[in-house]
Amino acid sequence: MALRYLTAGESHGECLTAIIEGMPAGIAIGEELIAVDLGRRQSGAGSGERMAIESDHARITAGVMEGVTTGAPISLLIENSDHINWKGRAVKPYTTPRPGHADLAAAVKYGYSDIRPSLERASARETAARVAVGAICRALLREFGMTVDGYVAAIGGIAGNTELYDHDERVRRARLSRVQCPDERASEKIERAIEVAHREGETLGGILEITAQGVPVGLGSHVEPSRRLDVRLAGAMLGINAIKGVEIGDAFANAARCGSRAQDQIALDGEQLVRRSNRCGGIEGGISNGGTIWMRLAMKPIPTTRKGQDTVDLASGRQCMATYERSDICPVPRAVVVCEAASCLVIADALLEKLGGDSLNEMLPRFKTLRQSTLRDVKMTDSDHIYWP
Ligand SMILES: Cc1cc2nc3c(=O)[nH]c(=O)nc-3n(C[C@H](O)[C@H](O)[C@H](O)COP(=O)(O)O)c2cc1C
């Protein structure tokens, strides 16, 4: 692992903190750049009242001088505006675990007599810190011409037609939609479905698609399972609250195809080795193959519902309804930027691992060489035989 990061902070605590270590020197990073992604995490339909209270801003407190990374660990601080409403307040013990949350399992695991500590840390408030760290990784990837985007493909069973437009147009249209869906008609239906869910005290899940373009051949490795790029991406996606399924490329459609129709045939375009399709989602044998990396993610309907759910009060031992705490209705649109951020982190880590180097200037020529590899570079001769001793 070339890049490490850690976040800390509770949902209603004073602030969120993040430290990222391993970023090379020479990357231009400003707080305004991070603010773009933090703003995306806060906007859109389906958000709860918390988003109206918070106006997230990440303060860079170390590792950046004169707007440029120094190579030292970068630390970030995001204040919780809502903290003031909780500070010094006697909060009633929380003893009614919500199904689908960490509440019950964490209470058993940590021996809590009040579930609040797990509620505070398991909350997706933490994803603000991840988005901030991801924005720094995005800035690194941009230096190498790589972009990571995402959009919503479906919410509450209402699917948009994501094939109506090419990739860039899809992303552009998604950004104009309050539910991050490129299909305008589906967006309207989804907005209505979110309103209905809100009225009924329900929540909605959905499907997101994430793409990474411009990724060179050779990130990740087949030699050891933990180094596989698909393993790392899938792990990062499942590390996001409420993301429960990851599909890379045509994984599920491929399962129904015969073998010769499930791969991406190799061809020559001049000296360049090219593929005739991208069913594998840009990763073969755990290594990026130069194609667009694309994933589909399943996000569950979030567990805090105004409509009650059965639980047991751990204080009285009686059957009761789970307590409702102010909550989102459908954070799927907001999760797009979270999934992008987590993808940026993985790809930036794999890039640094591949290229090495302490500064951007050291990395750029190495990247150029990697990009320019053609058939000539990999051409084998008859003498290239391996003999087992
Ligand atoms: C951006 C975002 C916002 C979320 N907001 C809420 C919320 O308001 N209420 C809630 O119950 N869950 C919310 N979740 C999901 C929970 O944090 C998550 O379901 C819970 O921690 C249990 O973890 P698990 O679903 O990953 O098993 C949100 C998730 C994301 C990604």
Number of domains: 1
Strand neighbour order, sheet with most strands = 8-7-9-15-10
The level 1 CATH classification is: Alpha Beta
Q: What fraction of residues sit in β-strands? A: 15-25%
Number of separate strands: 17
**Average residue pLDDT:** 94
The SSE order reads EEHHEEEEHHHHEEHHEHEHEEEEEEEHHH
Low-pLDDT ranges: none
Q: What is the 3D form?
A: globular
Report the structural category: alpha+beta
Fourth-level CATH superfamily: Chorismate synthase AroC
Largest sheet: 5 strands, antiparallel
Q: Helix segment count?
A: 13
What is CATH's topology name?
Chorismate synthase, AroC fold
Termini separation: 33 Å
Q: Any idea what the CATH architecture is?
A: 4-Layer Sandwich
Percent of residues in helices: 25-40%
Radius of gyration: 23 Å
Write the layout of secondary structure elements.
Elements (H helix, E strand, L loop, with lengths): L3 E5 L6 E7 L9 H12 L7 H4 L4 E5 L1 E2 L2 E2 L4 E6 L3 H4 L16 H8 L5 H7 L4 H17 L3 E9 L2 E2 L7 H10 L7 H16 L6 E8 L15 H10 L4 E6 L2 H4 L11 E4 L2 E4 L7 E2 L2 E2 L4 E7 L10 E3 L6 E3 L10 H24 L4 H12 L3 H4 L11
